[in-house]
Fold this sequence. Notes:
Elements: H1 3-11, E1 19-22, H2 31-42, E2 48-52, H3 57-65, E3 69-72, H4 77-88
Parallel strand pairs: 1-2, 2-3
Amino acid sequence: MPHEVLNKMTANGICPDILICDYRLPHGLTAIDAIRQLKVLWNKHIPTLVLTGDTAPLTLQEIQASGAFLLHKPIAPARLRSIMYFALHNETSLI
Length: 95
């Protein structure tokens, strides 16, 4: 994670409204690792979308168990925008 960006955001009281993250991250990390770290850093729930091309059942279960919205790649821009809207407005039953 780019710690210098996170440190500047935190120092300035900036917290994102939504997180969009690919499941597989550099250095063997996953979106789930990032979500956990960011929840501790900002001490609040942030709607999170996790994109993946992975179809392994354990991976999909892990993403769903995290409370993030699971999106399969590729995803159309219009679909991504609509899911972002629903996630930001807490209308999860429509997703």
